[in-house]
Design goal:
two-stranded antiparallel ribbon, 5-stranded antiparallel β-sheet, single chain, 1 helix, about 130 residues, mainly beta
Length: about 130
């Protein structure tokens, strides 16, 4: 609990405020910044029969991006086959050895003002 409060303090949040992370969200929806009002549609996780789309946030520019994981069994995840290149800023996230869901407990930030005060409004879940 104390470690969580220290993280919240580092993020500029009060102890009673929560932060968003992809592991606590599902489907697709709208993310909205409580500080600057920026909002955009995002995908957190959407699965199909032999593929899935997984939401990511670029650690460099904080853009929300979608990674397509082709050829995986239904509801199954494996190792990412390729490094991820952010389509917004070109930054490379090395992942050849990482699990596709690693890092999903990381706090999300507004891509405009970098605030952690975000709200997620789910449009649909899969």
């Amino acid at each position: 609990m104390e470690a969580e409060n220290k993280l919240k303090e580092k993020l500029g949040l009060k102890p009673d405020e929560e932060y968003l992370c992809f592991s606590l969200m599902g489907g697709a929806g709208i993310i909205k910044c409580e500080d600057c009002g920026h909002q955009e549609e995002i995908i957190s996780f959407v699965h199909g029969i032999m593929s899935c789309d997984i939401g990511r946030q670029c650690p460099h520019c904080h853009a929300f991006v979608v990674e397509h994981n082709e050829g995986q069994e239904f509801h199954a995840f494996g190792e990412s086959r390729e490094d991820f290149v952010c389509p917004e800023c070109g930054a490379v996230t090395r992942k050849k050895e990482e699990d596709i869901l690693k890092g999903n407990n990381d706090p999300l930030f507004c891509p405009k003002c970098h605030s952690a005060r975000l709200r997620y409004i789910m449009s649909y879940i899969t």
